[in-house]
Amino acid sequence: MNFSGKVTIVTGGAIGIGGGISRKFSEKGSKIVIADIDLEASLENSAKIRNLGGECEVIKTDVSKSSDIKKMVDFTLEKYGRIDNLIQNAFSTGNNTSFGGSALEVEEQSWDQGIAMLQKAIYLGAKYAGEELIKNKGNIINISSVHGLLMSKGALIYEAGKSAVIGMTKQMACDFSPLGVRVNAICPGHIVTEKMEVRWNEIPSGLKFFEEQYPVRRTGIPEDIANGVAFLCSEEASFITGHSLVIDGGLSIQLQEDFGVDQAKYAKNNEIDFPY
Ligand SMILES: NC(=O)c1ccc[n+]([C@@H]2O[C@H](COP(=O)([O-])OP(=O)(O)OC[C@H]3O[C@@H](n4cnc5c(N)ncnc54)[C@H](O)[C@@H]3O)[C@@H](O)[C@H]2O)c1
Questions:
Q1: Which of 52, 59, 77, 170 is most buried, by the most CB atoms less than 10 A from its CB?
Q2: CA trace torsion 152, 121, 34, 89 (10° rounding)
């Protein structure tokens, strides 16, 4: 797998899964644009990439704003003159707005803000980078989640957004693949990012309980997802489009009755600080 001469935009590429994707694509030879709302963290990741000999530019971007997504595309063309891979990964729960809750609880404003990041940004990224990706026969990768496949209670916005990403990926693949652009998604299971690590350090038995729920008996790391994204953007995946690749250590393949009983047995025999 060699991405020399390619240019990759990673939204939310400063830390977490996006941070790992930025580093992986640089390792494989691609020039990187980190488009992230957190400028300081973006500069830190960019410094890591440059220290290892990679090329990386940073643009402060809020993917919930159409004008920022347009600027991200213009900036990339100005800096590098082309775009080959658009990795649409950015999301955070926000500081002032609660994205949790059922349809009875969710405020309309929260819905609009959440869906702007989770769903509308995916459309706008494709809209603004589309022509350039077509020119270069590039790739779009949209980061969904196991939450796009299986629903959690009290999480209407996230589950709706992540489900929509899977549908949009298939739809966009129908439009873009004949034009040479493959569109795929990834559905990660639980990935221990820098932020999650802080939380788990406070309740290690909670993480152990999570790990027990995965057939591979571990949760994921950003590199697990970055490897999948790199594969989907590679020549080796040239016959794959519209696909949502589940990278979850087997979490979502289990029969729920068995799963429930196993969890109950584990909880009975172990001291656990439940994560929620
Ligand atoms: N970590 C997991 O367990 C997990 C599992 C499934 C799916 N996901 C998905 O993977 C993606 C990355 O998650 P993560 O856990 O790495 O998150 P994270 O919080 O560790 O990192 C998110 C990055 O996105 C940036 N960001 C947040 N809002 C933004 C915005 N509006 N515009 C631009 N940048 C923004 C943040 O600054 C940060 O750099 C998200 O789409 C998330 O839903 C994560």
A1: 59
A2: 20
